[in-house]
Amino acid sequence: MNPALLTFQKLWPALAAGTVGAFVPRRSSRVERLGIALAAAACVLFVTMLWPDAVATEPASTLSNAERFPHLLSWLVFIPIVGGALMLFAPRQATKTVQWLTLGIMGAELVATLFLFKLTPTEGKYWIEESTPWIETFGIRYHIALDGFSYWLIVLTSVLTPIATYVSFGSIKTRLKDFCIAFLFLQGAMVGSLVALDLFLFYVMWELMLVPMYILIGVFGSTDRVRAAIKFFLFTMAGSMLMLAAILFVVLKYKALTGEMSWDLNDLQRLNFPLTTQRWLFWGFAIAFLIKVPMFPVHTWLPDAHTNAPTGGSIILAAVMLKLGCYGYIRFAMGLFPHAAHVYGATLAGVAVVGGILYGALCAMKQNDVKRLVAYSSVSHLGYVMLGIFSRNPASMEGAVLQMVNHGISTGALFLLVGVVYDRRHTRDLAEFGGLAKVMPWYAAVFLVVTFSSIGLPGTNGFVGEWLIMSGAVLSKGTLGQWGRSQAMGAALGVILGAVYMLTVAQKMFFGPLDNPKNRKLPDLTRREGIALAPLVVLIFVIGLFPRIFTEPMHVTIEPWIRDFNARVEVPPVELATVAPKPAAPTPTPVPAPAQGGE
Amino acid sequence: MSLWFALSPLLILSAGGLLLMLADAFSEKHTDLALGAFMTFASAGIFAVALWIMGGVPAEVAKLVAPWIVLDKFTLFFMATLCLGGALSSLLAGGYLPEHGLDRGEFYALMILSAIGGVLLVAAGDFLALFIGLETMSIGVYAMTSFRRTNPRSAEGGMKYYLLGSFAAAIMLYGFALMYGATGTTALAGIRDALASGSFGYARDPSRLTTVIIAMAMILVGLAFKISAVPFHMWTPDAYQGAPTPATAFMSVVVKAAAVATAMRVLLVAFGDKFSSSWGAGWPPVVAGLAVATMVVANLIAIRQENVKRMLAYSSIAHAGYLLIGLVAAWGHGDPSASRNGKAAILFYLLQYTVTQAGAFGALILCGSKGKEAVSYEDLAGLGRRNPAVALPFTLFLLSLAGIPPMSGFFGKLFIFQSAIEGGFTWLAVIGLLNSVLAAFYYLRVLVFLYMKEPQPGAVEAVPMKSGYVTAAMVLASALVLYFGLMPGRSLDMAISAAQSLM
Question: What does the pLDDT look like over A15-58, one tens digit per residue?
Fold first, then answer.
């Protein structure tokens, strides 16, 4: 067959979608139609590229991932950071230039992310790794890697950051340059913490996230922004300081046992601590991550931060930053202290269900401020994610990672939508609205779709994640003990409560009489908002209908990870800290066994 | 290598100081004296670095001035650090003094002479040389503190500092005398040998042991006063607030670094024997207690300040607390690796702290101008919007002081806490880390005013000043903060090798 025809065969779904996109919308200008067509074509292209068949037909390359894409991860980390540093020199007054430059840098990041789809997932190992010495005196390395846990979260970051930035351009009018620079640094730091395997590097990236977010909330936020920003900063910093103490303790114990310093997760995982020590260290890490998630009772910073943050900041905070808490918990707290994580897993799962899912949902029900409501719904939804992590079987953990992505998309979209009415009315009080479906039909339609996704209607993404998590929790006798089923039931009750509060919002805002005269003339979604929302709506259905595309790459990592974790829990904790011998180079993640050595 | 070359940093400083005094006396205008002072500090620093690169002062040359002056790598490291601090402070003075009508040439001479005292203090291997260095350094600083003659705060600060400083010096001197009486020597190494020789063991001669402990306590008081550790910190806020800002910068970097270096020498060398440095009967628990008190008290009071300069003064006290943790870690239960890392951590901390703190005061100088100095938080309101070029370096230095990566302050703190945990003081490290959270609150408050608030309507706005000198200091300090933060490896290796030479 001639190459042109082959190309056409590959591209026809995208072309078809583009055509439909260009002709279906009525009342739109030519530019708008072109934009919609391009967006539709890109979305379909995205799906076809991910299609299992498409992946299978690619000839398996004999080269390793690192050889095929050298420094891919470094590019992902440093495109935004270096871009942000260069933006310092951009002209402040030329707002258009600043906007386009920012979107250009984020676009480059997105293109770099597309290369991730070309990676061959390797079972039980990091798919792609980079490692060079950084500060040799203390054995600190620049060690970054990617596997099924971080894969989709990185994609989520690169997709959502440009959307959040782009939609913010509509409402941020002053100090645009500061805003863009903060966003770029934030993106780089988030990707950096998702790929860092060296604990030092991870800590640096983890802290680096704080400052841009602090500025986003404190400078661009609403009335009570300064207090919220400081609260956010201090809560997170208090947690990370405890984590730093624990990191230092682990690193120095490794040094005492082996004589060399290393901050590398792979090295430190070989340590086996006595249970008492593990408990302390585990809490040092876990508190830092649980504050970020946030889990009851350290969640109080979140509603304030969300209520006062600008729309773009809220989107990123909810969609990506909270996930870093869950991710860090899996990668570091569980990775380093398996016994303690196993011992506390069941208790924490109870906290996640009662304090997270149910309490978060009940709080959400009582809110009048829509944004605060969505913030509490985040607390509730992240309770599911944590429940999935604590249940620790393949289904629940895949569900948890998938639910992280889902929550990123649906809550990101919700915050965006709340921002839309806030821009028009400068209030978020539920009592002010009613009957909006008559004046803003498109807005109401999108809002309902996102609401369905958020409450987990079958066919949308939320359903898949919650279903996987709950079915995992039911099967989790080995991890959650006898309470596993009741916790799954609690989570199911949370779904009902979620439907109650989300549908109440939809009802109060969109239906009923349009009796507030201020709402009579509200314009519908603008082009900017439409373009920002379109990919999210498409993703909601893509994940909901074809979840296998998303769970397959995770599965490759999660299954062996859990096997390895269980094997490590089987090894009884020791009286004195020991370190397992270094494995031979090709074996995957090492299993620590009691070995010689002592304190 | 001749002795002249070995002592060159000290000689350059002396010659430079005297020349500047002459130049001041014989010239009509003295606007460029700051440049002269900067050049003096810079060349002295370069000579110190050159000596370092040549492998340090050879033993046969160092022997000529021993035991009064010790010319090891530790001394060289501190010579360079003090000169860096002095160079930055003189640049700040070059902008600040003319702007605020204080442009009298003595300031630079005083600064350099005081720095000579600091260098002597760092190099002193004998209580007599140490005391001469201490007084030389202090007298210059007393004069600089009360340099704003017409300002009552400045006079008050200077007076307070002078009186309390004299008392502290007298107490310390009394301690030296008692020590001499007990051991028969004033050399630090000699004292260590005498204490370790055995006649001071618990059981042997209780009366002499009592003398040693009292002497040790008195010397510790003098040192804690100079480091401004709680509860000997009362002079610090007043002196720092009253002094012209370049003098404050000088005090908080050069004087503090020299005092900490002396404390290291005295405690780790002279009192480094088994008995004086035991957890049961020696100085380590006292220093640990001082460290905790210093951090907690200073941070809590700093939160309540309304004056940025005073807040920075308290923050400088709090930083002394972190340094004292390092001092405990440098003792490290006698574990050689922990001890070496503890010493190195203090050295690196002081190096980066010099740059950061001088930079922060410099940024504060830059925020105000003639008639309206920026002192309170309100004065800084909205500066991030009005003048981003001033606010950005200020942000950098504050984040570094707060210990946020990747600024240099983070690495300073990290290495201090790391060595503390390595030495078995996890609890101290945890207290220190939690204190960093407290500290972050008041550093962030400055950022709040810089970026998130607008000045009250009708308030007199502090207009940022323009000065090539201060701008140069800002550029230099920002570059170094980022350099120490992103690539600390090289300076850390230097700190370790300096730490190893301390014995």
Answer: 888 888 777 766 567 777 777 788 778 777 777 766 655 554 55
Asked if B404 lies within 8 A of A225 by C-beta distance, the reply is no
Establish how many alpha carbons lie within 13 A of residue A599's alpha carbon, considering only the half-sphere containing its beta carbon: 12
CA-closest candidate to residue A269, choices A597, A587, A586, A581: A581
Q: Best mutation site among A135, A241, A250 for testing chain B: the one with the most B CBs within 10 Å?
A: A241
Taking CA atoms, B130 is separated from A69, B191, B503, in Å, by: 61, 14, 16
Angle ∠(B46,B52,B55) on CA atoms, nearest 5: 145
Contact B433 A175 (CB under 8 A): no
The 10s digit of each residue's pLDDT in B461-481 is 778 888 889 999 999 999 999
Using an 8 Å CB-CB cutoff, list chain B residues near A136. Answer: 489
User: Is A263 touching B (CB cutoff 8 A)?
Assistant: no
- Express each pLDDT in A219-247 by its tens digit: 888 888 888 888 898 899 888 898 999 99
Range of the domain at B232: 3-501
Q: Does A249 touch chain B (CB under 8 A)?
A: yes
Which residue numbers in chain B have pLDDT < 70? 29-31, 198-206
CA distance B213 to B196: 14
Amino acid A26: pLDDT: 65
| Contact with chain A for residue B427, Cβ under 8 A | no
Burial (CB < 10 A; 0-12, 13-18, 19+), residue A354, is: middle
Annotated domain spans of chain A:
12-49, 79-579
d(CA B410, CA B404): 5
Cα A132 from Cα A143, distance rounded (Å): 7
Cis omega before residue A80 (within 30°)? no
- Angle among Cα A102, A522, A170 to the nearest 5 degrees reads 10
Distance from CA of B197 to the nearest CA of A (A): 32
For A138-204, give the DSSP string.
GTEEEEEEE-HHHHHHHHHHHHHHHHHHHHHTTT--SSHHHHHHHHHHHHHHHHHHHHB-BHHHHHH
Total domains in chain B come to 1
Q: For residue B424, give the chain A residue with the closest CA.
A: A249
**CB burial class (10 A; 0-12, 13-18, 19+) of residue A317?**
buried
Mean pLDDT of chain B: 88
Inform me whether the pLDDT recorded for A175 exceeds 60.
yes
- Give A178's contacts in chain B (Cβ within 8 Å): 384, 451
Nearest alpha carbon to residue B64 among B3, B125, B132: B3
Q: What is the model's pLDDT at position A25? A: 65
Chain A residues touching B487 at Cβ < 8 A: 135
Q: Do residue B406 and residue A204 have CB atoms under 8 angstroms apart?
A: yes
Contact A245 B414 (CB under 8 A): no
A224 touches B: beta carbon within 8 Å: no
Q: Which of A153, A161, A159 is nearest to A194 (CA)?
A: A153
| Residue B405 to residue A204, Cβ atoms within 8 A | yes
State the DSSP code for A117. G
Give the nearest partner residue to B437 out of A137, A237, A249, using CB atoms: A237
pTM score of the predicted model: 0.86
Asked if A251 lies within 8 A of B441 by C-beta distance, the reply is no
Q: Tell me whether 0.90 is exceeded by the ipTM.
A: no
Interface contact A137-B436, CB threshold 8 A: no
Q: How many CB atoms lie within 10 A of CB A11?
A: 15
**The amino acid at A17:** A
Residue B136: closest CA among B150, B119, B123, B160: B119
SS (H, E, C) A396-454: HHHHHHHHHHHHHHHHHHHHHHHHHHHHHHCCCEHHHCCCHHHHCHHHHHHHHHHHHHH
CB contact A85 to B (< 8 Å): no
